[in-house]
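User: Could you write out the 3D structure of this protein bound to uridine-diphosphate-N-acetylglucosamine? I've included everything you need below.
Assistant: Certainly. Input first, then the structure.
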Amino acid sequence: MKFLSVVGTRPNFMKLAPIARELAARPDVEHVIVHTGQHYDMAMSDTFFADLDLPEPDHHLAVGSGSHAAQTAAVLARLEPVLAAERPDIVLVYGDVNSTVAAALVAAKMNIRVAHIEAGLRSRDRTMPEELNRLVTDQLSDLLFAPSLDAADNLRAEGIPLGRIRFVGNVMIDTLAHMLPRARAAYAPARYGVGERDYIVATLHRPANVDDPANLAQIVRALEELSHDRPVLFPVHPRTRQRMSELDVAPRGGGDLRLLEPLGYIEMLGLVAASSLVITDSGGLQEETTYLGIPCLTVRPNTERPVTCSRGTNRLVPADHEVIVNCARRIHARNRWSKPSIELWDGRAAERIARELCEDSAIALGSAVFQATV
Ligand code: UD1
């Protein structure tokens, strides 16, 4: 069988890695990788291919930055001839970015089956571009691989036929579990001169937080204040760096708030795994901190990953300087860490996906069993 994966952004690469490994181990399978180029620079893309031992993409569409419409349209136009030439049996799309929805649409219109990895997540917030991407991608997909039971339930509630849904677990956790020994061995905290469980890691890139000057200022002020208690390491996403300079939101100094370049996967994981707290608006970090048992404050009004709050270490907070500082200080005062366990977040999701794709034959759609029971 021939599979073709389409990836484009930093969080896609972690999802692709375990699938690429599983498919490479099957001699009867051909796996073609297309990089749309939505993320294109060394720090946001190339480093991840190296860290995750990913093969060079077979095709690079070089779509680059642009408005949502321009970026999505560029993927549509540039992917079509690649699919026409490659004629894969199934196109695999990952997560919820512009490249995901565009790839699903091109493939579906060419009558090529689409499998969505990380299907069914819903924030129910249609102001988020990612939510629109998720809704459309899931409607277009023939096979939907859900990372959690709530995600599988969302798909059912939207009328997706049960035979198309598979509850397989979380591929981000596959990558985390696979890379954790290497990340710990690299011991990133020592390189930054920070002590285990005595520093905060922060990331920020959602439009709602970084494009709104008031919200961005509130969050940066909170990080600045917390950095008087312990170091705050803040790898700054390019979008955020741009906004911080445009809006003139600069930390005032005095504490130990360190603005870093975006980090590679291994270094970031090493830092997160030994931190005392993560403050973020990232989707992946909510899951990774839950798996690691590290407290997480997510600066958003909602999450498409509710299991990280109900069962994990995640808590939603508003973009409010005082609330963020108070919550962070309470977490540090409690000084307690526990490692929750979530069904099928066990490092073997990609193995289940590859089995479904290759052995249970995705071709026999409709005959499959909905497995959302553990
Ligand atoms: C995208 C995804 C988001 C994901 C995030 C992870 C969509 C709608 N959004 O958001 O779901 O969580 O990636 O990072 O698909 N830039 C660079 N170098 C790069 C890439 C981007 O400098 O390699 C800059 C560009 O100025 C660009 C800005 O970052 O305009 C934003 O990039 P973009 O791909 O539009 O969206 P993200 O905010 O990264």
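The pocket of uridine-diphosphate-N-acetylglucosamine is lined by residues 9-11, 38-41, 44-45, 65, 96-98, 129-130, 205, 237-239, 242 (CB under 6 Å).
User: Perfect, thank you.
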